[in-house]
Write a structure and sequence with these properties.
Number of helices: 15
CATH topology of the largest domain: D-amino Acid Aminotransferase, Chain A, domain 1
Number of domains: 3
Shape: globular
Strand order of the largest sheet: 13-12-9-10-11-14-19-17
CATH class of the largest domain: Alpha Beta
Bound molecules: adenosine-5'-diphosphate
Largest sheet: 8 strands, antiparallel
Helix content: 25-40%
Structural class: alpha+beta
Length: 451
Amino acid sequence: MFDKILIANRGEIALRVLRACKELGIATVAVHSTADADAMHVRLADESVCIGPPPSKDSYLNIPALLAACEITGADAVHPGYGFLSENARFAEILAEHNLHFIGPKSEHIRLMGDKIEAKKTARRLGIPVVPGSEGAVGPEDDAMAIAKAIGFPVLVKAASGGGGRGMKVAQTEADLMLALSTAGNEAKSAFGDASVYLEKYLQKPRHIEIQVLGDGRGGAIHLGERDCSLQRRHQKVWEEGPSPVLSAEARAKIGATCAKAMQDMQYLGVGTIEFLYEDGEFYFIEMNTRIQVEHPVTEMITGIDLVLEQIRVAAGGDLPCTQDEIVLNGHAIECRVNAENPVTFRPSPGRIVRYHPPGGLGVRIDSAAYQDYVIPPYYDSMVGKLIVHGKTRAECLMRLRRALDEMVVDGIETTLPLFRALVREPGIIDGDYHIHWLEHYLAAGDTKKP
Ligand code: ADP
C-alpha cells in the first residue's frame, strides 16, 4: 500500500479522497493555489503545499509544481480526483518516469478512451453496442453529406476530443449540416486544440444511463450497476440517481455483464464509467470516463462499496473487494449538484457563504468542502456541494430528499437549491418519466421563475 498520497485537486473531491486515505491509514498531502489557502482540504490534510497562483493552468494543472510537491513531501502516489489532470495520459506517464504512482488506469487506456473515435472503435471491438455513426473522423476530403444521409437525419456533430458537452452541434436537416460541421470544428479547435469531428445519429428522447466498473488491471473486473443521469442542462448533469427508474434487473445484468467482460478483456485498472444513451430498450455507447466521477456517491449508497478507497487499493496492486455475485443493490439513491448559480439564469454566483446549515438524518449525505464564511472563489467550478440521499425505495428516497432540501441553508450567494426543491415536486420526476431533454424543456417553460 502507499505511504503518502498527494491529492492533485481541490474542493469536495479533494476532501472525498482525503477521507478515503484516512480510513486506509495513509498520510495525505494537499496542494492548493493561493486562492485556496483557507480551503477545507488544506486544513484537513497532514501536509499542504502551495503550488501557484489562482488560474488552474498555473496551479492545479502545473505538472512541474506537482512533481516538486511530491519531492518535497515524499509522497509516493498521486490521486488526481476528477477534472484537472485526471484524464491526462501524459501526466500518468510523467509520474511513472519519476517513480510515482498515478491512482488511475494505465496511461494507454486513458489515451484510448480520451479519443472518442478510438473509444467507439474499441467499444465496438469489445462487443459493446455503440450509437450508429461515421466510422471515424469526418474530414474535408470525405463526403459528409453522404455519410449523414446514410446515418439518417437528425445527426449530431461531435468533437473527437470533446468533453463537458462542448464541440457538439445538431444538424436537424441536410441544410444544417455544413454549418454544424464548421461550428463544432471551430469550437473543438479552440477548446481542445483539435478540430476533428465525427457524426452520430442524434437520438430524440434517450435517457443517459452509465455503468460503473472497477478493474484490478490483471483481468479481474466487476460492474456496480448503473446511474441514470438524464437530467441535464447543456449536456451537463444536474441530478443523478440509481438504480435507473426504467431499467429491469435483466437489462441491468445484461449490459453490466457486457461492460464487465469488456473491462476484463482490456485488463482495465481502477474505476471507470461506461456511458450510454438508452432508447426503446436499446443501449448505445457514447464514451468512457477513466476516472472517479462526480456522481460516484450514488453507487456507493446503493452498493455500500467505497469506490475511492477501492480505487486506491487496486492502484496499489490489491484485489477487487468482492465478486460480481456479492454485489447487491440496496434501495435507491439520488444526488443533486448544488451549484453557486442563479437557479433561473444559471449565472455563477461566487462569494461568501454567510450562513451554512447542511441537512442530516438517516440516509442523508453531503459531500462538500463548504463551511460558514467560506468564500467560493471565482476561478474554478461553481459547485457548493453534492446532496446525496438514500432510501429503501425510490418513493422513500424522494420524500427524504424533499425534506433534506428544505432543511439545507446556504445564504449569501445564489444557489441551485430552489431548482431542486421545485424538481423534487414535479410529477415527471416523481414518476421517473424523463429523458435527456426534459430539463431544458422544463426550464424553457419558465416553471422555475418563482423558485
Ligand atoms: P461530453 O464528453 O462532452 O460530456 P458525451 O458524449 O458524454 O459528451 O455526451 C454528453 C451528453 O450529450 C449526453 O449525456 C447526451 O445528453 C448528449 N448526447 C451525446 N451524444 C448524443 C446523441 N448521439 N444523441 C443525442 N444526444 C446525445
